[in-house]
Amino acid sequence: MKIIIVYNLPTDKNSADDLDVLTQVEAVKKSLIELNHSVIEFGADLNLNLFKKQIEDINPDMVFNLVEALNGTEAYMHFIPQILESKNVSFTGGTSQSLFITTNKVLTKKLFDQYNILTPKWFSTKNTFNAISFSVPCIIKPVNVDASVGLDDSSIIYAIEKLKDELNKRTEKYGECFVEEFIDGREFNISVIETKDGPLVLPIAEIRFENYPKDKPKIISYDAKWNEDTFEYHNTVRNFDFNKNDEKLLNELKKTTLEIWNKFELKGYVRVDYRVDENENIFALEINVNPCISPDSGFFAACEKYGWNYTKMVEAILSFAT
Fold this sequence. Notes:
It contains eleven helices and 13 strands.
């Protein structure tokens, strides 16, 4: 097949999370060539007319969509699938609707509430009604930014009188933010991929915070994900091995993930993140449609644990292009 890999042009050459998409492009391209497809790369930005022209000129059999943002704004990432849907071009990953919903964490949490899926209590800067009865500790997160951008130890608020100032400061820096009850418990990432037999829940990963001092917040911060020179990067560890006592919890996590897949009408490949408190209550945090598929990503780690190599993962993603 003739396949266009579309990706977002990085806007910050010094940002590890921004440049990561180029690693994904190289890895996917290598696998597509191995699968005997012809590959054309296209770096997208908000010049959408240029993208439309490329589609018309090249007339691809399929588009492999790796776009994570446009001009640095993740809230625009649904524009690319929306164009492809309008032109009836087959593409990989989630639909424009699912990307529109899940790139807005507040909208996703509203739907969690509507679908009776447990999520930590929250309020946003645009809706402070729930702030009246809010308690600490809580965590401040940007609404439309992924990859742990804007998350560090000071995101956790322990004194309610400091909340307003910190929220204003972060809103000014990252755009709209929301405040979420902080669940000081275990963290799980669960990857799902569409198959001929329906959604397949890949091996469940727990993110463990090893050697963390007792008073250090256990969160997947920006440093934990991207900054190799930090304590957090080397002591925030993905784990796929569990003891028998976790069996019931793992089954409940799998059940909740499939419920989310169905209620949000997801397609392609997805990762759902959770926190679990000391009473084993499962709190859904967010849904990542088209999560990162770099060779060192959590999604590929789950595929590898399942027994797939990188090319097998790419082939599986291609098989269920929209």
